[in-house]
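We were asked to recover a plausible sequence for a given structure. The inputs and outputs are reproduced exactly as logged, with field labels preserved.

PROBLEM: sequence recovery
POSITIONS: 589
GIVEN STRUCTURE:
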């Protein structure tokens, strides 16, 4: 085994190894050579090479998303580091432990006109769990330090190097322990002076490793909350982004059996029960256009809002709960609670199953018409939805219907942001399908990279559904050697940002088409040829049915299916859906 001859490089590698960090995504460079040597020449690490740093960071995020443990990304100095920022922000808001390791220039070469040099320390401070800015070794490249910054050495090189080693150990322990315990991204910045490529066979440092201490979940007396729950006739449980199989089904079954409770889920919630309401917007949209809107929203308004999971996709449910606030909003999460509805009254700092186990023992079903009333509403809109889907022409909505009907069981489904996730919200997916989406910042910038990273460590077939802008924006994601043969991309191409056509204020003008919708005539055929993917394209309903029949089958290479849909028609069909399910339903309530 070889180590870098630079002490701080050895220290970083040994700390990662001691903390169980196994996956390292490396972007090529020279300044990060000491760390690249240390990671790639140690069989304890799984190393990946991704040229584009933005893609590399989302690729690493996809791995960490699946494994629920820290994954490191490593880059050279300069603007390379800034390309990590979108993924860092996503990791911060999604509680994903991304470990960013950046090589830096010596402190005395910052802001003097040296190439590939920027101010790298604290660069992510607004969106990072911790920034560890390591000190530069003085026992390496002594001649250069004496020439450029003799004050950095002091009187005794060995004594100064020991102080540097101690300081770096403290910083690395803080950063890595926090990433593991709190599942937050951290940044480790490491300055190196040349020479950078020296190797030795034995480490010369003996780092100090602190134990990882996780914060204990807060234990509370829940009697007061149980009494409130048992006296309320309208309780709404809303579940945001949630890992598959993370909630014990017996607790979900108990919530589902209470007539005073309705459970609203999203595609990303990954929980299922026949009594749950999986299409939030299909409940709220008809109420919004009703003549009796106030009366109906007041009937839906909960006394207690009970939330868990991450961020919520539905803008309609956020608008509803912000106006028709619950008396009490409780959120359960060990680390954080967002006041999304401006009504948060209590944050239970528990692991979810621990809380449910304790809380549900002391609560009881309450006689109420709340579930019965809204379940009847759900039955109506589901019937109307089925009727509407049978009569519409080929479009985005029709394509999503066929995709979900044809999708096999037990796949990992990655969904891009913008239109793709919002269309998915309108359908009931098979319970065996595990759903993921980058909802921390809800950006389109790394969905392909995230999906590929996630697929690398999953034993399930991974399917990505993406829109055209999101796909082409992140097309460099295909530039790597890790795409598995069972990886599938479904590209819904409607020649632009179709979501903008359903937003208020859109007009049929060249200005709108150019600067909002960003219309184009691109297709993925040449990209697939470039990267060795099987490509097919359909633009008719019967052809899509036939193609989906073979698309998921195994082959020796990955596949991309491009579905061309009508740009002008899509928004009319989607808006028409909400109008159609609203007709007649509201008259019953």
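RECOVERED SEQUENCE:
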């Amino acid at each position: 085994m070889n180590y870098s001859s630079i002490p701080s490089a050895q220290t970083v590698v040994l700390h990662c190894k001691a903390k169980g960090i196994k996956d390292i995504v490396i972007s090529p460079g020279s300044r990060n050579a000491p760390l690249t040597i240390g990671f790639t020449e140690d069989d304890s690490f799984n190393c990946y090479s991704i040229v584009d740093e933005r893609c590399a960071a989302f690729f690493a995020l996809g791995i960490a998303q699946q494994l629920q443990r820290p994954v490191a990304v490593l880059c050279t100095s300069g603007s390379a580091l800034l390309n990590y920022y979108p993924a860092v922000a996503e990791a911060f808001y999604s509680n994903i432990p991304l470990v960013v390791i950046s090589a830096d220039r010596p402190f005395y070469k910052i802001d003097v006109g040296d190439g590939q040099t920027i101010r790298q320390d604290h660069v992510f401070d607004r969106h990072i769990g911790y920034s560890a800015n390591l000190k530069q070794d003085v026992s390496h490249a002594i001649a250069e330090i004496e020439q450029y910054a003799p004050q950095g050495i002091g009187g005794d090189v060995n004594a100064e190097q020991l102080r540097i080693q101690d300081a770096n150990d403290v910083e690395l322990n803080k950063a890595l322990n926090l990433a593991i315990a709190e599942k937050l991204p951290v940044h480790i910045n490491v300055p190196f002076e040349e020479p950078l490529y020296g190797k030795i066979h034995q480490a010369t440092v003996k780092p100090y490793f602190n134990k990882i201490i996780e914060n204990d979940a807060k234990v509370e007396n829940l009697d007061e909350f149980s009494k409130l729950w048992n006296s309320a006739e309208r309780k709404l449980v809303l579940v945001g982004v949630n890992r598959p199989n993370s909630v014990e089904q017996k607790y979900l079954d108990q919530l589902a059996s209470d007539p005073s409770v309705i459970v609203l889920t999203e595609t990303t919630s990954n929980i299922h029960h026949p009594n749950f309401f999986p299409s939030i917007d299909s409940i709220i949209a008809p109420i919004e256009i009703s003549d009796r809107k106030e009366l109906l929203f007041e009937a839906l308004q909960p006394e207690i809002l009970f939330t868990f999971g991450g961020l919520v996709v539905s803008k309609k449910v956020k608008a509803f709960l912000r106006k028709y606030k619950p008396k009490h909003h409780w959120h359960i999460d060990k680390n954080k609670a967002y006041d999304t509805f401006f009504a948060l009254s209590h944050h239970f700092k528990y692991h979810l199953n621990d809380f449910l186990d304790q809380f549900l023992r002391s609560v009881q079903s309450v006689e109420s018409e709340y579930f019965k009333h809204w379940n009847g509403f759900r039955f109506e809109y589901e019937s109307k939805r089925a009727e509407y889907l049978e009569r519409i022409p080929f479009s985005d909505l029709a394509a999503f219907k066929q995709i979900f009907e044809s999708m096999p069981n037990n796949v990992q489904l990655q969904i891009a942001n913008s239109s793709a996730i919002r269309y998915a919200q309108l359908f009931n997916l098979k319970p065996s399908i595990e759903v993921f989406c980058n909802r921390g910042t809800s950006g389109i910038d790394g969905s392909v990279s995230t999906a590929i990273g996630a697929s690398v460590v999953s034993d399930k077939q991974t399917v990505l559904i993406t829109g055209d802008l999101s796909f082409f924006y992140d097309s460099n994601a295909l530039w790597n050697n890790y795409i598995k043969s069972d990886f599938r991309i479904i590209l819904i191409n409607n020649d632009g940002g179709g979501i903008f056509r359903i937003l208020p204020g859109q007009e049929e003008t060249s200005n709108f088409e150019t600067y909002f919708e960003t219309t184009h005539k691109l297709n993925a055929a040449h990209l697939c040829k470039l990267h060795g993917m099987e490509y097919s394209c359909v633009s008719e309903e019967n052809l899509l049915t036939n193609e989906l029949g073979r698309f998921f089958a195994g082959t020796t290479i990955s596949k991309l299916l491009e579905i061309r849909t009508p740009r002008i028609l899509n928004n009319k069909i989607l808006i028409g859906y909400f109008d159609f399910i609203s007709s007649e339903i509201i008259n019953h309530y």
